Task: structure prediction
Amino acid sequence: MKELTVRIRRFDPDKDTGPHVESYTVKVNDGARVLHVLHAIHDTLDPTLSYRYSCASGQCGSCAVRVNGEPVLACMEEAKDRITIEPLNLAVKKDLVTDLIPRLDQIASLLPKKDVVLPKKADIDAIKPLKDCIECLSCVSVCPAVDVTKFIGPTAMRQEMRLVLDPRDSGDRIPDAIRDGLFFCTTCQACWKVCPKSIEIPGKAIEKLRAHANKRGLSLPRHMEVAALVQETGRSIPRTSESFLEKVPGVIEPDGPVKATVGFFVGCMYNLRQQQSALDAMEVLRRNGIRVIIPKEQVCCGSPLIRTGNLAYIDELKRRNIETFKSRGIDTVLTMCAGCGTTLKKDYQTPFAVIDINELLTRYGIEPPARLPIKATYHDPCHLMRGQDIRDQPRALIRQVVDLVEMPSICCGSGGGVRAGNPDEAAALGKRRGEEIKKTGADIVITSCPFCEFHIAGHTDKPVKNIATVLLEGYREKDRKKAAGSKR
Result:
C-alpha cells in the first residue's frame, strides 16, 4: 500500500458559484490507477464526488479526465502523488463528469445502401486506422479550432472519413465534412497525441477528406491559389525581395574544425519571407563547426499542399527535392522549419536522414554564448513538438542564453492552411496566444518555426525571435565583452 495526496477540481452547479480545488489523501495499492484513487476517495472520504466510469479496462472511454492538464483515461493512468485531476475541457455537469451528449450526437451514423454490399479486405484495411475510436472526446477537449469556431471536432471528422471508406455507406460525406468545418483544422496534431488509441486524425482523416474535396473541386479558393503558385514557381510564397538562396554561397564552411556536414533544406518561408532568421542560423552553425551545403535547386517540400489536400503535384516536388540532395551525396539534411521537417520525416521516403536544427545543435553541443539579461518565453511549434517530438532540445539551447519562463503549449493558428483559408480563425487563435504571452511577463518570444514567428508577431507587442537569432545575439555579446576586455 502507498499513501497519495491528490487535488481534484470540484464543481456542483446546484451549490457552487464556480469550480474549486479540494485535496484528498488516501491509501491505495502499488500500481493503482487514477480511477482506483477516485474510488478510494468516494468510498472512504467523500461520497459526493462525481466521476464517470464503466469498463475500467480502457475500452469504453467513459473515465476520461485531465491529469496535470493532459487528457487520460483514469482507468489506465498510473496514480502518482500530488497530481491534479480535472474534468476534460468540455461543459461540466458535476465535478469530473462532463456533458458528452452534444458532441456524441454530432457523430454521423452509417446510412446503409439499398443493396447489400460487403466490404473487401482492402476496404477493411483502409478503415482499420480509424475504427478503434472509443468516443472519449479527449481529442475534442484539446482541439484549438473547437474553442474559436463551429468546428465539429476531431472525433466526428474521423467518423466522416471512416464512412467515406465504407462501401456500405450511401451518404455523401465530403459536403457534410465541409459543412462541419473540415478546413478549420490547423493540423496541430494535439488530438492524436492525447488519443488513448493513437488514432492519427489529422493525417488519416482530415488531410484525406481534404484530398477528396480537392478532387471534386471543393478546396478553398486560397488553397487552390497556393497550389497554383507552387506548381508555377516551386514556392508557396510570392517573391518580394532577394531570396535566402540568392544571398548565400553553395557551401558555408565553419570557422573551426568540422564536426558535421549537412545539406540545408531552407523552406519557402525562410527563403522568401523570414530570410534573416535563416542567415542568423548559418552564422550559429558556422560558429559551431557545422559545414552547410545549400543546393540551389531545392523547391517547396509540399507541406502546404499536403495539409490542404492538393496532392496532384506532390510527387513531382518529392522527386525534385530528393534528387537535389541525393545527387550531391548528402546523407543528412538539416531543416529549421518545423513544417518542412515534419514533411520530410513523415511524408517523404528519403535516402538521407533528416534532422532539425535544435536536434543538431544539442547533439554536437554549442559554444556557450554570453547570457543576456532577458526573460523569454518559448512557443512550441506544433509541427516541431508534436510532429517531430522535439520539445526539450530548444529549451536546452534557450536556457544557455536567457532566462526561460514557460507558457501553455497551444497552437498559434497559422498551420493547416488556416491562416490562408480562414484568417478570422487564425486571428482568434493568435490573439489567444498573445494573451498567454502577456501573462508570462516575458521580454521576448522565442520560437523555431517561420510560420509561428510571422503569425505570432502580429498578435503580441513583444519581439518574436528565432532560437538561432537569440543564440547569435549571445555570441555577439560574448565577442563584444571579449573585445572590450582586450582594450583595457
Observations:
- The chain has a mean pLDDT of 97.
